[in-house]
Description:
The structure is a homodimer. By secondary structure, chain A is α+β, with helices and mostly antiparallel strands. The first copy, chain A, has helices at about 15-20, 40-50, 65-70, 75-90, 105-110, 120-125, 130-155, 175-185, 250-265, 275-285, and strands spanning about 5-10, 30, 35-40, 55-60, 95-100, 115-120, 160, 165, 170, 190, 195-200, 220-225, 225-230, 235-240, 305, 310-315, 330, 335, 340-345, 345-350, 355-360. Chain A has 10 helices and 21 strands. The longest helix of chain A is centred in the middle third of the chain and has 26 residues, at about 130-155. The interface between A and B is large, with 53 and 54 residues.
Amino acid sequence: MDGLLFIGDSLCDSDMFYLSHFLTQDRFTLLAQEKITLLVSSMEKGRAWKEASADEVISTSQYGVMDKLKAFGKPDEAYRQVLVEFLRDRGVRRLGVPFRFPAAIYQHLCRDFQVTVLDSPVSRWRAVKTLQEQDAIRSSQKACEKAMRLAVDLVASSESRGENLFRHGQPLTSEQIRSSIEVALLEEGCEAVDTIVAGGVAAADPHARGTGALPANAPIVIDIFPRSKSSRYFADMTRTVLKGEASLEVKEIYQAVLQAQIVGLEAIRAGISGNEVHSRVVRIFREQGYPEREGCGFTHSTGHGVGLEVHERPSLSEAGDTLEAGNVVTVEPGLYYPEIGGVRLEDMVVVTAQGSKNLTNFERKLVL
Amino acid sequence: MDGLLFIGDSLCDSDMFYLSHFLTQDRFTLLAQEKITLLVSSMEKGRAWKEASADEVISTSQYGVMDKLKAFGKPDEAYRQVLVEFLRDRGVRRLGVPFRFPAAIYQHLCRDFQVTVLDSPVSRWRAVKTLQEQDAIRSSQKACEKAMRLAVDLVASSESRGENLFRHGQPLTSEQIRSSIEVALLEEGCEAVDTIVAGGVAAADPHARGTGALPANAPIVIDIFPRSKSSRYFADMTRTVLKGEASLEVKEIYQAVLQAQIVGLEAIRAGISGNEVHSRVVRIFREQGYPEREGCGFTHSTGHGVGLEVHERPSLSEAGDTLEAGNVVTVEPGLYYPEIGGVRLEDMVVVTAQGSKNLTNFERKLVL
Lengths: 368, 368
């Protein structure tokens, strides 16, 4: 293989950001050989030189993209011609492209090069975090905990009246808490694409964001996954809290989830498979009387890697590979029932040779 | 063609969001036939049913994805098998896939189906906005203007002392203004992935974000492109302001940019090509004594479509196609010189049969 080629924008393609540290919403090309070369529009060249960690930055105007546009009429065709010349100049004949390489360009390159579609090696590299990456994640986690503190305090300081929670005489809403979380994260240099603040039966769907007045006497799931605007690394944590009276059933569910999380956390170490960690969590739920059923109970995987994406390798699920030291993963068992709602607890840990280091420093307490 | 197939996440693939109104960070499959069908993980099914505008939502567990995972070992292989069965069940034999369809899945599907890679028709549909979409963009623009007002007021209320601007005895920084903009946008339900607040020579690169103390007596480029968190539609605007004394040269540059923007805005109507609008702007700059030179002068295109992406069709550039009524485009000429900095003015308009409606309501004034 003479090189690995990526085409996309690094805002969406984290592999490209990982390899270049060049952040842009606009499509560009990255060639990974002994060194990393970027092919960008002439407008982006200056910034790419300054910001990217690439060895070389070439602009499409160096390959006469404007003349080619005049000749071919179509921007995509002009771009493909530039690409062919760019690759030939770099001695490329056999080329690797990742899983999600654009089909149209793949098809075109197959005419002039020997192209192999690879399982992206970069997402495997990304799964093992350097100390610097771990620091970046830790710093996002600190912001996450500040926001979680604010959210939990809002629920704690509310009043349970009838079916809903109130603050200063007004119903306390999901939107209000979410907005406080987002402002707090922004002050810490983080953004949150989505934050879950879902109470009562709404939380029975683990991905429901939550809207409207929050219920009294019912579990409220708060799941925050901020991304640092500077480092681009995520953190991820969940707590479930309740204001008012908890039913015996909800208390038992919470205890079962807590127990399952402890079992999951204790299972983690380099060398164990994500599948095995997940199996142990599934088993402990079954033993405690919460077997799997279609659509309710423990409906998702035990955890996932966290880094430049909020969900990345490795997975703690039936598809989970062997864990390595330096992986950063969540452990987030949950139980969901349409008539009750949801309970989920999520910590984030670094995998080590002997076990794991928990990056989450926040109490697990149901009733506030 | 029996259907058009999309695979990706709708956070990054706006075509998929446009067709489904289902927002997720996780990969899913969308098949567009007479009706829209989503193929999602069992965990996402409930939310997809509730939130998506699709006609049908199928979960991968209905195709036994877990059993296939056990049989094949690899999640990607299991997914591809599910996909083949899903497509066969829907009578698909000849399949269209968009430009950026994942190469690995394309390659696999070619074995069982007749697959054609298409120039995405969806991005062409997206270029013409319905009245509802125009309202969504207008609403993001309102938020944008509130944030711009705040930013311009911060510069206006600063003191020009020596080389820098000061407020309350402290240097006024790009970060400070950007942070005020972001909090204001958040309060309006919008997010900003990036905001440019670049002063002096830093602004000579049109995409530089700007850092540190802002200069006195030099143009400051403020470019805000918020996205509504609920509708997902963007707005986009730029103003250039200066506190202190403007040199004659900077004043002339500002006048040239303003003149070019007026020429660009007046050229716009349904039926003209984006290329022609751009040519007129290039010509007026040349006539005013600002010809193109490599790397400085007017270094970018005149404008771009705005919608679910901040840069989308149609383009006002050499590659620009014919404008249609309902297009929403920016008109944003600028001039950039390494020794001076940059000046850019950007409004956003809806293309109409006779001309355009300007969605931007904000004064253009250099010296505050």
